Amino acid sequence: MASVVVREFESRHVAGAAEVLRRAHLRHIARQPLLALDPDYQRLIHREREEATGVVALVGETVVGYLLGRHASGLLGPHVWSTAAGHATDDPELISVLYQEAAASWFSAGLSRHFIFAPADREHIEPWFRLGFGASAFQAARPVDGPRDFDGARDVLIRLSTPEDLLEIASLVRELDLQLKASPSFSEIVVASEEAIAQDWRDTWELDDYTHFVAELEGRIVGQLLLYRRPTGDLRVPSRSIDLGNATTAVARRGLGVGRALTTAALEWASANGFSVMTTDWRATNLVAARFWPHRGFGATYLRLYRSIP
Ligand SMILES: CC(C)(COP(=O)(O)OP(=O)(O)OC[C@H]1O[C@@H](n2cnc3c(N)ncnc32)[C@H](O)[C@@H]1OP(=O)(O)O)[C@@H](O)C(=O)NCCC(=O)NCCS
Fold first, then answer.
1. Distance in Å, CA 292 to ligand 1 centroid
2. Rounded to two decimals, what is the model's pTM?
3. Do residues 212 and 237 make contact, with C-beta atoms less than 8 angstroms apart?
4. Ligand 1 test: best mutation among 181, 224, 249, most atoms within 8 Å of CB?
5. Which atom of ligand 1 is nearest to the CA of 245?
6. Nearest to 197, CA basis, from 159, 138, 246
7. Structural domains in the chain plus CATH codes
8. Atom of ligand 1 nearest to the CA of 296
9. Residuewise pLDDT in 10s, the chain (310 residues)
10. For residues 24 and 32, what is the distance between their CA atoms, to the nearest angstrom?
11. Which residue's alpha carbon is at the smallest distance from atom 26 of ligand 1?
């Protein structure tokens, strides 16, 4: 690594960075095939550079690694956001030298909270753990036609929802927000009222991007699950994939098989409608989700890593 120099990322580095990303992504696909097969790497780098600063690692004039982070703000305050295309290296050991340089400028610009997405395997995660990062969220995928042998509750009925279900759905969606707000997640989200959530969801049935299911038990809606046609063009979004955006079972009805029945129905619907991969994500600290989705066959593709410098 002696001949490696780290410089500010400039436009002339885009093509080289795209090549590093392509090589890294092909290695990732070899371990985890449920990813985008042929993304436009240069486009991804250009997108990642918007409102971002970062660095490249060079051997001579050849790019061997890069790290970019968008300067962002929001409920969390100023932070750095670097998605799956935000860094790549030919050698994961380069991560520490890249981060050392990039973090120096982020920190002096007042950005002390850093979010980084990395392939969910030991080789790519450990260099970040050694830099003080921890697991914040998982992105995951499973084949639609893989095992679906998780029967739900015997008396549960799963059906596509209708606009008439809106208020009951809003109440269930609010329960998801409350779950994220509680320990140990302590999410920064502001829990909206049921009326505000209903307003947000009002268009769901008019938009082609969404397919929504509800679960009925003893004539009452006790669960909901939303599928979302996530746009392709991202490393984590394979073609013919559909995203499981969120799911909730009413607190009093959890552990009875409602969630399993909803998941099975969603997978069956996805199969019948020509999708081959289902993606989802969850917060590492949402303990019920962190247990439930891996048991339903979802395997991690990327980890969102987080470091907050006190
Ligand atoms: C995640 C969530 C949707 C699961 O819903 P659920 O209806 O409780 O799910 P199920 O009852 O089908 O399964 C829960 C567990 O109970 C088990 N279970 C189901 N029926 C059972 C039964 N009859 N006897 C014993 N165990 C049973 C399941 O196997 C599962 O355990 P496992 O994941 O270890 O296999 C629910 O916990 C929830 O709403 N959480 C809050 C919102 C949230 O975090 N959503 C996910 C992120 S979007």
1. 6
2. 0.94
3. no
4. 249
5. 48
6. 246
7. 4-132 (3.40.630.30), 143-299 (3.40.630.30)
8. 33
9. 559 999 999 999 999 999 999 999 999 999 999 999 999 999 999 999 999 999 999 999 999 999 999 999 988 889 999 999 999 999 999 999 999 999 999 999 999 999 999 999 999 999 999 999 999 999 999 999 977 766 666 789 999 999 999 999 999 999 999 999 999 999 888 899 999 999 999 999 999 999 999 999 999 999 999 999 999 999 999 999 999 999 999 999 999 999 999 999 999 999 999 999 999 999 999 999 999 999 999 999 999 999 999 9
10. 12
11. 255
